[in-house]
């Protein structure tokens, strides 16, 4: 494959409904042949789990409408997955979306407020978009820091534990296979 002198390389056409097993294998194959001296950009990837898997496989950059689209449906991204703020369980929940998050939405609005506006106004979509993008930027920052510190494998294990608190037996098999390929095991 001949690489011209572009500032980065990209892989597109993923996340369009292909099986996750095919998804991670394609990302892995591409990152193995693309130059390591240039950023490797995977288009259309925005689910937090997919981002962590793709970074582990060697991808560097991503873009996706997911954080904004999911916000329009009243959903906030959090360490344990998603909060569906349209649910009535949040009607009297006066906590922020995430008590460790310092985005402007978490600093100024409660789950109860967002529940109320999420069911009636588009304001919630804007506030949740701010939070969701902040969450993903922070996730990427954490991964970069852990890669630089040589502790990325530990980060992945903690991320997976937060996302799937019932342990490795509940992890998606495609994730286990993808992580195993790059030497991250959960046994």
Automatic annotation (TrEMBL):
<dbReference type="GO" id="GO:0005829">
    <property type="term" value="C:cytosol"/>
</dbReference>
<dbReference type="GO" id="GO:0008479">
    <property type="term" value="F:tRNA-guanosine(34) queuine transglycosylase activity"/>
</dbReference>
<dbReference type="InterPro" id="IPR002616">
    <property type="entry name" value="tRNA_ribo_trans-like"/>
</dbReference>
<keyword id="KW-0862">Zinc</keyword>
<feature type="domain" description="tRNA-guanine(15) transglycosylase-like">
    <location>
        <begin position="5"/>
        <end position="163"/>
    </location>
</feature>
<protein>
    <submittedName>
        <fullName>Queuine tRNA-ribosyltransferase</fullName>
    </submittedName>
</protein>
<dbReference type="Pfam" id="PF01702">
    <property type="entry name" value="TGT"/>
</dbReference>
<dbReference type="GO" id="GO:0006400">
    <property type="term" value="P:tRNA modification"/>
</dbReference>
<dbReference type="InterPro" id="IPR036511">
    <property type="entry name" value="TGT-like_sf"/>
</dbReference>
<keyword id="KW-0808">Transferase</keyword>
